[in-house]
Write a structure and sequence with these properties.
Number of strands: 4
Low-confidence stretches: none
Oligomer: single chain
């Protein structure tokens, strides 16, 4: 079964993460989305309206579709390379992929 590993990380960790992921044998590649976000604990503090409208920080969402056997190695690499121990490090999650097909040649990536 295929899985999608997603993680929201700090942009300054992307280069070292990419290098580390490339060291994993048969790593399938990743897609990177750039965006903005904020950590939920920040919402607990009393803030002015101006602070509420400008508290977004740059974030990167990465997505990797891989065989289930690779999930642990990929997830451990993301955690190792992206964790600073500070608020705003991000989050990692894994979701099942029901079907995946290459656009280039039509080959199915999922194994039944």
């Amino acid at each position: 079964m295929m899985k999608e590993i997603r993680a929201i990380i700090r942009p300054n960790r992307l280069g070292q993460l990419r290098a580390a992921l490339r060291e994993i044998p048969d790593f399938p590649g990743m897609t990177v989305f750039r965006g903005e976000g904020f950590s939920a604990p920040g919402a607990l503090e009393k803030r002015t309206v101006r602070e509420e409208l400008t508290d977004f920080t740059d974030k990167v969402l990465i997505s990797v579709i891989a065989q289930e056997a690779m999930v642990q190695a990929i997830a451990e690499t993301i955690l190792r390379e992206c964790r600073t121990g500070h608020l705003g490090d991000g989050v990692l999650w894994v979701v099942p992929v029901e079907a995946a097909q290459c656009l280039r040649d039509g080959a199915w990536l999922t194994r039944e």
